Amino acid sequence: MSVMLNRQIVLTRRPVGVPQPEHFELQCHPLPALGEGEMLIENHYLSVDPAQRGYVNDENNYAPPLPLGAVMRAMAVGRVLASRHADYAVGDYWYGWFGWQDYCIATPAALLRRVDPQQAPLSTGAGLLGINGLTAYLALHDIGRPQPGETVLVSAAAGAVGSIVGQLARQAGARPVAIVGSAEKGRRCVEDYGYEAWLDYHQPIEAALRDTCPRGIDVFFDNTGGDISDAVLRQMALFGRIIQCGTLATASWLPAPQGPRAEREILTRRLRIEGFVIFDHQRRFDATAARLAALLAAGQLRYAEDISEDLAQAPQALVDVYAGRNRGKRLIRLR
Amino acid sequence: MSVMLNRQIVLTRRPVGVPQPEHFELQCHPLPALGEGEMLIENHYLSVDPAQRGYVNDENNYAPPLPLGAVMRAMAVGRVLASRHADYAVGDYWYGWFGWQDYCIATPAALLRRVDPQQAPLSTGAGLLGINGLTAYLALHDIGRPQPGETVLVSAAAGAVGSIVGQLARQAGARPVAIVGSAEKGRRCVEDYGYEAWLDYHQPIEAALRDTCPRGIDVFFDNTGGDISDAVLRQMALFGRIIQCGTLATASWLPAPQGPRAEREILTRRLRIEGFVIFDHQRRFDATAARLAALLAAGQLRYAEDISEDLAQAPQALVDVYAGRNRGKRLIRLR
Fold this sequence. Notes:
homodimer; alpha/beta; Quinone Oxidoreductase, Chain A, domain 1; 2 domains; 16 strands; oxidoreductase activity, acting on the CH-CH group of donors, NAD or NADP as acceptor (chains A, B); Enoyl reductase (ER) domain-containing protein (chains A, B); ADH_N_2 (chains A, B); GroES-like_sf (chains A, B); oxidoreductase (chains A, B)
């Protein structure tokens, strides 16, 4: 068997804050032979996710930081090219921790969910039916529990998670309101993603919140934190629920930036704030993805993908996501 | 019927932060005649509670601020001296919103719970079986849900709520740890209130937390907020629960003081933070008080009361509670 070459995006410098292209190198290495119990995965769609910032920063997170010299940790959808594990068949598609590279030698621990290309377009395995849609569905329903008529406010509402949250909240009979960074995104939220209203966080947000959420905010699906959250907290309704799903607004947590203390608002409004990490819920991925796929097949769910094809551009794509320059789920298609 | 005189502590100036004696006046007024549907209550024990700060400050709270010229809003245990309401019998004891005064003319809305002097000493109606014990029990079990072996950290642990939380957490099989303001309080927590360890927040708290809570903190029963909470947040265990029960550490919320942002800790540690206000749970008061009284009768619960007898000293007593100078539940006995 001839030696296969594998292009990889390798972390070569430790970033503080959002990783930049200069923290990575595109390298090319021969693939080692497959060991017992391993699979060779051919990557089709690489995922670009805000959470990747946390994978490379040496700061408090839910996973240890990626070591220098390692392939960038990333989710992807790929196909099993070869298998030395009886439980995993050649030809199957999987969603898993395959990294920003052409090929991945994976053990079962890296495989999150088998992707059925008949269920939905293959790319959705890394977005709508991947961590983004799964997060939207599970965090909204587990923590947010929107009731009919309630106001559900979503930050980064036009993003890969927020665009799904709006539609699901609307289906639950709630009134979704979008926080976005531009009028163009706001319009997309209302036209495509089920939102009833939107506001631009570059404008004075307190007044805009009072206008769009006159009875207060029952559920805040928070993908940003920061100044936006501060303002929202003060307009939460009694017994409101806050889903802490992301912290896009804060570039670095070393040290933690200052903000107004929240204890008094939490107490007097009886708020519940809860952190959500999708990987805690892996056993529910299949059932939840099936529900999302059924909504998609019934024409009740829209999604947007922002796909490019150059592996070398993956680091820049992550910078763009942090800058809000993506239009929907950011993916790199390799084949 | 001769005119009865009523001594009252009246709010005469609007405080910012903790109210001081100069914000009040002791006044004496004749009692008006009892209207249809009203009861005349003779106060026996007046309650002194940190929450009273919030009643008089003109800042965000769960009740509108007390108007100037009004009797200080306060809980008390009193006896029905006269009744013009068929459902309320003369001679019965009640716990309710009777204010810092000798007598209160009350409607049913002011009455929270009938107190049975056979169930437990009358004074406990305003403390252990009043909002303090009820808060300890319901907030700990509803939000904290301590599991056997878990670490339950409590701020203001020697106070009227904290002293009960320690004992209840111990009974649930958890490991209660006290945060207090002095070694003397710490010793009391361990000797009397079921705590396994204590730390003084005047000492460097991060290191003390690591020593006393080496596996992290599963439940934080937070009566203080402020710097203490900031340090605790960073040593919470995964899936930890924080009960936001009080904000003793912050004297004024206008404007909200700054502190390190919590979003990243909440997210990465999957914390749940929830505000607790006891008055949301009024329908469970009787059943919960009965459980606490049964524990008391069985010798499984200790409580401390710090009782004085001078109505005029009530404002100073509140200052003392904020300064941590009370030893147990602060009460004013009037008869």
